[in-house]
Amino acid sequence: MKKHLMKSKTWLVIAICLSLSACNLPNGNSDTSEITVQQTSVAQTVVAMQTQLAVNETPVIPLIATNTPGAELPTATHTATLLPPTPTITNTPAPTFRISKVVDVTFPDDTLVKPNTEFTKTWRVTNGGTGTWTPGFKLVFISGDALGGPASVSIGQTVLPGNSIDLSVKMKSPGTTKTYQGKWMLQTDKGTTFGLGANADGSFWVRIKVDQNLAVTAATVSITPADHNGVCPVNLAITASVTTNTSGKITYYFITSLGNSGTMELTFDAAGAKTTPVYALPVTTTGPVTVSFYNDYPNHQEFGAVTIPVTCVP
Fold this sequence. Notes:
By secondary structure, this protein is mostly beta strands. The protein has helices at residues 2-23, 32-56, and strands at residues 99-104, 111-113, 118-127, 138-144, 152-154, 164-172, 179-187, 193-194, 204-210, 216-224, 228-230, 234-244, 248-256, 264-268, 272-275, 279-283, 289-297, 301-308, 310-312.
């Protein structure tokens, strides 16, 4: 379209110039040089007018189609988000035979024992498994210092899951002064050994210190009155006769079914027996009252237990 318009304008200019030159045609006598001059003038005029038209021409801005046929549209990219795998929770069944708790009833860890002295170690053991312990189950020695104890002892009772049993072993301290420890576990009637912990493979133990240093060798509890049938509240008078192997100071307290006393001291000038000051235990209700003596230092050991009946009368 643009080229066609330019051609039309060019021919129009040529036509105008020819018309102008015709008006000024020379007569018959005009020589060739004059004609040539006129043609040159016309040609120059045509060029000048073409240039002017080109200058005044409004440029055409090409149109770019927004939807060009055949053009490829951008492809949307989808990014997949990978979720972490869901953890698998495995419920491990509890062992059929397991000990959930062991309490030292006598001779707690590091109890001081004289050389070549017989003693009885007692543990309170709780059935923490799903199976019942039968009388054929055994307390068995595993490793360490046997301390003169047997290789095994039958428990002799049925223990249901959740229940406890006191197991005792007679032992004897060696003649050499040092710390001794022996490890023990339980064994089924089929010979399977089990103990503490989630996997029922942990042992429990006895640990004593053999030395000639101060030690409480005996303690006997007394309660006055030996029984009570009368008005309450009433104060029970509690004392203990304590024997040591040498001079020194011990600490102790009374364990009672109504609560423990505070810690007290007793000094010995020499080996022998001595009676503690009176401890008054208030009782307000009817029922049996049990009292024992606990030597906190040096033995860390409980001695004896005495029970009396109490009946409160209005």
